[in-house]
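Today's session is about reading a structure prediction critically. Students often jump straight to the picture, but the first step is always the sequence itself: look for stretches that repeat, for charged clusters, for runs of hydrophobic residues. Only then move on to the predicted structure, which in these notes is written as discrete structure tokens rather than atom positions. Here is the chain we will use throughout the hour.
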Amino acid sequence: MLYDIRHKTTFNYEEIVSVSHHVLHLAPRHHPQQTCVESETVVDPKPAIDSVGEDYFGNPIQHLTVQRPHKQLVVDAHARVEVRPAAQPVALDQSAAWETVREQLSACEPLDAYELVFGSPYITGNDDIYEYALESFTAGRPILAATMDLTGRIFREFQYRGGVSDVSTPVSEVFMMRQGVCQDFAHLEIACLRSLGLAARYVSGYLLTRPPEGKEKLVGSDASHAWVSVFAGDLGWVDFDPTNNVIPGVEHITFAWGRDYGDVSPINGFIVGGGAHEVSVAVDVRPGPSP
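Below is the predicted structure for this chain, in token form.
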């Protein structure tokens, strides 16, 4: 499946900004089921410094410095991405027992997964979250079957509701409120998995903006979306979407992954001046022509 994606962000400042520095995660990354065909970001005013590279997790990253005084900054990102189905469906009950994977991770193997066992700036657990996770992770249960069960419970027991949280809302508060948005549900599921000594990462991306024929539109489309990925031993990393209770497939487009939202925020940085400001974001995800 080929997608054309546009993510346009406009910052309007009350006062003049003399200089601004920004870090962007607005280019899709490559992985076995996904190829970035092309990607371009247009910035107005034009930055004096504009460099691209990769961050610690291998995500495409762009660094900007705008030195021209401005009261508006527009970051308009375009990408074309090909997403392919997995070679075979995920066999939930044929994965290793979750305790076996935990033992592997406790030996620091593999290191890139082991470092995602621990809490992170936006994700910390507590005893209540640990007990909630244990309801799905019973003794000897296959790790992917248990994670799918946990994903479904979050989907059924938590209400999707915007405006009740923001990026700084602690996972413990989301757990008590039983409501939030995709970012909150991803953080919560990751907190559950890490509380058990398992490795989980935060995945940022997009959903198809139109539903497949005969199906309802998925929650979270026409906006950035978030889901989780759990390390499953010999099966590697497997994604789960607690907002929609699905294993992501060709309708999920991956842009970046990391410990939590803070590692993959679409636009981050700081400014000199500006005063109060407003931010507007417009996202369009459209099926493109066949490759």
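Discussion point for the tutorial: The mean pLDDT is 94.
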